Amino acid sequence: QTATMTSAWKEALRSRIYCAARDGLALTLYALLNNAPKADFPEYLNALVSDREQRCSPLLIAARNGHIKVVRMLLNLAEAPVQLEQEGTVQFDGYVIEGATPLWCAAGAGYLDIVQLLVLRGADVNHPTRTLSTPLRAACFDGRLDIVRFLVEHGADVHLSNKYNNTCLMIAAYKGHLDVVRFLVDCGADPNVQAHCGATALQFAAEHGHLGIVRELLAADARVLANGIGMTPLLAAAERTRADVVRFLVEQPWCGRQDKVDALELLGASYANDKDHYSLERAYHFLELAMIERSREPPLPKKPGPALAAYDSRVECTSLQDLRAIRDDAHALHMESLVIRERILGPHNPELPHPVVYRGAVFADSASFDRCLLLWLHALRLRAAARLPLRKDLLRFAQLFGQMLHVGVEVPPAAMAQTLSACLRELEAGPQEDQDANLLTCLYLLVELGRLPPAEDGHDLMRLVYRLVRLNRVTRDGSTLLHLCVSADTPVDDYHTKNVCRFPCASTARLLLRCGADPNAVDGRRNTPLHVIVAYMRPVSDFLTLHAIIVALLEAGAHPDATNGRGETAAQASPTGVAELVLRTQMGISLRCLAARAVACYGLPFRSGEIPQSLVPFVEMHGGRGRPQPRPGAL
Predict the structure, then answer these.
(1) Is 318 helix (H, G, I), strand (E, B) or coil?
(2) CB under 8 Å to 260, separation ≥6 — which residues?
(3) For residue 79, which phi and psi values (nearest 5 degrees)?
(4) Where does the record place its ANK repeats (predicted)?
C-alpha cells in the first residue's frame, strides 16, 4: 500500500511539473522542483507525459509553447541534465508530429530566442522527426528567415529532405516565402531536386501562383521538368488558374507555340469550372487568345477527341468563328471547357475529376439530376482510372440519390447499379482506412435501393447485393452490413441521406437476408444481429420495425440461444420486456441447440474429438468458448 501511495504521489508530481512547464509557470516549477528529491529529477524532467494528442517532456512542451524562462531554468539544472534530443509528439496546425525535439518545436513555432539557447547548449541542428523533417524545414514552413539564417550559420544542412524527398527549398517555395527561397538558393540549395512525386520547387511555386519565386528559381537555373503525372510548372499553373504565372512562363524563350496554346486553353477551361476562381469572362478571354495563336502561320490545327455523353456530346470549337459563336452561351462554354481539360490533361490525370464534380453539383443544386448523374458517373470512372480513393464520391452518390428520392424523382436503376459496382470494387481493393465509411455508404445505397420501384434489370441489382454480402467486409468493431442495418446506433450522414435512411431498417435487413447475409454472424463482442436488434430502445413507438426484424432473422435461421461475449442469449441481453416477449413468441428451440447449450452450461469437453469437428463452431456459438455458462433456464 505504501508503494502504491508513493507511486501515485510521484505520478501527481510529474504531472504538476509538466503542467507548470507547459503553461510557463516558472516560479511554480521552481517550487515543485525545490521540494522534490534530487534523485528523482531525471524521472520528472525527461519522462514523456501524455497530454491529449501530444506526448512531451517538460523541456519539449516549454519549447513548443515559447516559454523562454522555463526552458532556461530546465537547462540550468545541474542536478539532472535534461535531454536536449528528447523526442516527443506535438501538434502543429492540426498535424500530429512524431519524433519532434525541443529544437524542432521552437523552430517550427517561431521562437528565435529558444532556438538560439538550445543550439548554443549543443542541440543537434539536423535532428529529424519520424518523417525526416529537420528544424530548418520547420522554420522554412513558416518563413522565419531569422531562424533559418541562424540554423544555417550553425551547421543546418540545406540539402536534407524529408521522407518524400521534399526539400527545405520546396516547402519555402510552396508556402510563398520569397526571402527564404532567395537565402536558400544563395546557400547552394539545388532547385532541380525532384520529390518522389516528381515535382520541383519551381512546380510548387508555379501551381500556387508565387510569381516572384518562379522568377527567382528560373534565375537560379531551375529546369522546367514534368512531375510524375506529366504536369510541367506551366501546365500546373494553368490548371490552378494562376494567370500571372502563365503569362510570364509562356513568354519564356523555351516555351514553344504548342505549349503556349495548351497552357492558354487549359487556363481558360479551368476558369470555366473552378469552384474558387470561376469566371466565364476570363475563360473566354484565354480560350480566344489560344485560338488566335492557333490561327497564326503556320497554323496549329486542333484535333478534337470523341464526343462524350457526359459533356452533352460537345465537340470542341476548331476555329475562331466557332468559338465566338458560343461566347454568350454559358452551358456551351462549360462543356467546351470540360472537353478541353480532358484532352490536354488526359483521362488518367488525378486533377481532371474535380471540375467535373463541381459542374455536376451545380446541376444538382438546380434539380437537373440527369445532367448531374452523367457528369458524376463520368467523374467516378475517371477517379477509378486514376486509382484514386472513391470514399467521398460514393457518399456523394448516396446523398444525391437521397435528395432525388426525397423530392419524388426516380433514381435510374442503371445509375444505382454503376454506383454499387464501384462500391463493391472499392470494398475489394480500396484503402483499408476507408472501409468503415465505405460500408456505411454501401448501406445507405441499399436502403435507397429498397425505395426504387421494380425494374426490368432488377436481377442485375440483386446480383450486386449478393456479391456485396458474399464479400463479407466488416467494420473495425466486427460489424457486418446486417449488424449495421439492425442497429439504432448506425450513424446517418446529415446531407440529404438522412431524409430516406433510418436505422434499424426492416426492409433492408430482409434484402440482405434474401441475398445470403448470415443471421448468426458475430461482431467483435460476439453479438449476433439478434443481440443488436433486441437492444433497440424504441420497442413500443417503433414496434413494427422491431417485430419485423426479429421475425426476419429467425425465419432466416438465427439461433435465439446463441450467446455473446458476456455469455448472454438475445433474450437475456434485451433491456426491454417487449423484445424478449417477441422472441419468446416466435422462437422454437431444436434438440441440437438444447444439447449444445447443455455442453456449454456444464463446461463439458468437446474440442478433443468428443464430437465431430464440424459441430465445434456450433457448440461455441451456444456458449462453449472455454468456460461454463449460466444455466439457460427457460431461455
Answers:
(1) coil
(2) 250, 293
(3) -65, -30
(4) 98-130, 131-163, 164-196, 197-229
Which grid coordinates belong to 591? 434438440
| Count of positions (residues) in the chain | 635
| DSSP-derived secondary structure letter, 454 | P
Q: Let me know: does 88 contact 57? Beta carbons within 8 Å.
A: yes
Question: Is the predicted pLDDT of residue 2 greater than 60, yes or no?
Answer: no
H or E stretch covering 586: helix 577-586
- Write the CA distances from 206 to 234, 251, 602, integer angstroms: 7, 15, 75
Element (H, E) at 170: helix 168-175
Mean pLDDT of 412-432: 93
Q: pLDDT per residue over 513-529, tens digit each?
A: 999 999 999 999 999 99
| Nearest alpha-carbon partner for 358 in 393, 314, 390, 313 | 393
Residue 113 C-beta-side C-alpha neighbours within 13 Å: 9
Complete DSSP assignment for 357-420: HHHHHHHHHTT-HHHHHHHHHHHHHHHHHTT---HHHHHHHHHHHHHHHHTTPPPPHHHHHHHH
User: How far is it, in rounded angstroms, from Cα 458 to Cα 456?
Assistant: 5
- Percent above pLDDT 70 for the chain: 91
pLDDT tens profile 64-79: 999 999 999 999 986 6
Q: What is the DSSP string of 335-351?
A: HHHHHHHHHHH-TT-TT
Tell me the H-state helices in 252-352: 257-271, 280-295, 320-325, 330-345
pTM of the full predicted structure?
0.86
- Give every strand in the sheet of 95-100, ordered side by side: 49-51, 54-56, 88-92, 95-100
Q: Would you say 372 and 378 are in contact if contact means Cβ atoms under 8 Å apart?
A: no
CB 223 within 8 A of CB 193: no
SS3 call for 1: coil
DSSP assignment of 136-147: HHHHHHTT-HHH
How far is residue 449's CA from residue 176's CA, in Å, rounded to a whole number? 49
**Long-range pairs of 291-297 with CB within 8 A, sequence gap ≥ 24:** 291/317, 291/319, 291/320, 291/323, 292/320, 293/257, 293/260, 293/261, 293/264, 294/261, 295/319, 295/320, 296/257
User: In whole angstroms, what is the distance from residue 395 CA to residue 50 CA?
Assistant: 35
- Cα–Cα distance list, 388 to 85, 257, 354, 445 (Å): 39, 33, 12, 21
Closest CA to 69 of 111, 110, 108: 111
Degrees, nearest 5: CA angle 444-449-454:
170
**Spelled out in words, what is the top-level CATH class assigned to the domain 1-156?**
mainly alpha
- For the CA atoms of 142, 146, 148, 153, what is the dihedral angle to 10 degrees? -170
Residue 549 scores a pLDDT above 70:
yes
How far is the C-alpha of 355 from the C-alpha of 161, rounded, in Å? 33
Cell numbers placing 322: 466557332
User: What's the pLDDT tens digit per position in 559-571?
Assistant: 888 889 888 888 8
Q: How far apart are the C-alpha atoms of 584 and 607, rounded to whole Å?
A: 31
What phi and psi, each to the nearest 5 degrees, are found at residue 167? -90, 170
Measured CA distances, 439 to 378, 382, 387, 468 (Å): 22, 22, 19, 10
Q: What is the mean pLDDT of residues 250-277?
A: 96
Measured over the CA atoms of residue 284, residue 285, residue 286 and residue 290, the dihedral's sign is positive
Residue 399 burial class via C-beta count within 10 angstroms: exposed 0-12, middle 13-18, buried 19 and up: buried
